[in-house]
Design goal:
It is a single chain. By secondary structure, the chain is α/β, with parallel strands linked by helices. The protein is built from twelve helices and eight strands. Strands 3-2-1-4-7-6-8-5 form an eight-stranded mixed sheet, sandwiched between helices. Helix 5 packs across helix 11 and helix 9 (about 235-260) crosses helix 11. The chain is globular and about 70 Å long.
Length: about 325
Amino acid sequence: MPSISIVIPNYNMAGTIGICLEAALASEYDDFEVIVVDDNSSDNSVDIIKEFPCRLICLYENAGASKARNIGAQNSTGDIIFFTDADCLLQKDTLSAARRIISKEGDIVLGGTYTVEPFDKDFFSRFQSVSINYSETKNTADPDYIATHAMAIHSRTFKESNGFPEDFLPMLEDVEFSHRMKGAGKRLVMNPDIKVQHVFNFSFSRSLKNAFKKSRYWIIYSLSNKDLTADSGCASSELKFNVLSFFVTLLLLASWAVFQQPLSLYLIPLTLTLNIALSRKLIMAFYRENGTVFAILSLLYWIVVYPVPVCAGGISGLISALLKK
């Protein structure tokens, strides 16, 4: 069986790196190593990492997750590199599944996703975990990108690729890498058997901030990549139509307030119905995993609240992209 190197970048993740390493080291696989690259953390992450039988590489200045991953990969000895994050918990069979699929599929970039059940059980973490699992696995044959929370690739292929971009946005380096690998003729494969459990620790405000941040950088990247309308994982067609529906509903309400035309009010239920119809598979995922009450609350959050930070982040990203021109 091929050996596997698990590469984990860490920056101030003392709250989760311990359980991350516990899960990684509990893998039911015969030949693997764990490499943690600490990106000059200012918390006690390094002290925690030193308690585990893994290889620790410490950077002397904060360089970003891309460089940390690249350095970890350069220092790896495995035939396969498995990238994950310091707030992700590998399942016991994750490495075995990755080896099995890569052995069958050949020289691919293999991706996995979050378990539908997050480590923390609050509403906002559950909402996030289910929605990401759904959006990342709905197109397994030809995904737009592979996320670094669960990415496996032949070591030689990665080392010949120049790795993740180090002079880039604060996030989405895995999207850029995936698109570059696709352009080089490599096949991306998403397999829902490759799972990691994510530690979100989401509150209402953290959920909104996350949506804003992701939307901002997705817009910046998508404008430069000319794929703004692509159905791309977390930047799914459902999310984009949900935001459009929110905008249209606001415009119809404003139109009714100004012109007092009943037609504006009549069109609002039609817009919402169409939005729900297009998001029906996501809504069913909410229901299937956590029941009726959770599905209803998630639907309300999805169509009433979530579009606000996504819109705000998108506008922020658009302004930033225009100013750079």
